[in-house]
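Appendix C reproduces, verbatim, an entry submitted by the partner laboratory led by Prof. M.T., so that reviewers can inspect both the input and the predicted structure.
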Amino acid sequence: MLQLQYIKDHTDEIIERLKIKNVQDVEARIASIIDLDAQRRALQQKTDTLKAEQNNIAKQIGMLMKQGKRDEAEQVKQRTAELKAEEKELSDKAAAIESDLNAQLISLPNAPHISVPRGKSEADNVVVAEFGVKPDLSADALPHWDLCAKYDLVDFELGNKITGAGFPVYKGKGARLQRALINFFLNEAANAGFVEIQPPLMVNEASGLGTGQLPDKEGQMYAIPLDGFYMIPTAEVPITNIYRNCIISADQFPIKHAGYSECFRREAGSYGKDVRGLNRLHEFSKVEIVVIEHPDRSYDQLEEMKKHVGGLLDKLGLPYHILKLCGGDISFTSAMTFDFEVWSAAQKKWLEVSSVSNFETFQANRMKLRFKDTDGKMKLAHTLNGSALALPRIVAALLENNQTPEGIVMPECLRPYLGFDIIK
């Protein structure tokens, strides 16, 4: 959630930045927020005046009672009743305005960094770097879903039988490859200074609101209404919420966590869009990295996180490029996002495997995540997160890119975790 005071102090800047995200009627929305805040403050001033008058009357009544002037005291008490009724009316109006103000603030997306490219959709994202060499496969190369069937690695039909489409069953060396990737990613994160967290797979509504999944992505989350829980779409949600309603010390920065979890997404509205095989699932494994950082250093930290993700892909030997997302494709909560896409040689297309984002104070303001700076002032921290990495499309690219007539050759970095060099 954007900070109200910042909106008031930097109105033109906020409007300009929100225009990068193509926010509709942004001038009117910001004006409404500022107007509601002014109404709330005016009501508060009136309420304070009424309270002060009530306090003076209470003192006057006390003096009259001491002087034995009961009749006069009773007459003054009538005015107290009138003031209390007026205060109740003002309080009800203030509560309604406060509710409206909060609803408008929470529905407003994060303002993107001024350097975020303008654009309407993913077609306007900007490729900022490309690494690796695309493999030259033979004409009879198979896509990963055929390779999964050929080597009995993933059973999509069995998952459909047990649960439904988008819930695959990993088998044999396919299951071992999943476990190897998870352990590899977690160990690499530990070597980079991330403290491992094993989070719950369900969160409450306050956690969903804290990181911005609610109310923006409510339709994408699996809900458990009886208990008021949601299945997590990413480990970012429970890990970041560790610090909800916390005040941390400035010397704790950066706070770095990594966590493996299953992720659950309804993927509403994505029917027919890259849904073959492992390309788009409702349940998948992912290792997430989360950083809580000082505002002055968060963009340096974003670069470090990008290097970490790129290093994983380099070790896996996967060709990839990095995209700077435009305003039309960046998420509701993000101020800046870089996507990593790997080349899928048999499908002949790029597959997204990671998003690395800086949310600045947006999540921290929702969660009341603060710190006392060296100047003694209480401030909001910056939060960042990234996939390091999401497994399904990594597996798809590994299988496709490394297929040979003898079998599927595994990257050197995974062999100590797998216990085999080739799938055949």
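The chain has 13 helices and 19 strands. Additional entries are available on request from the coordinating office.
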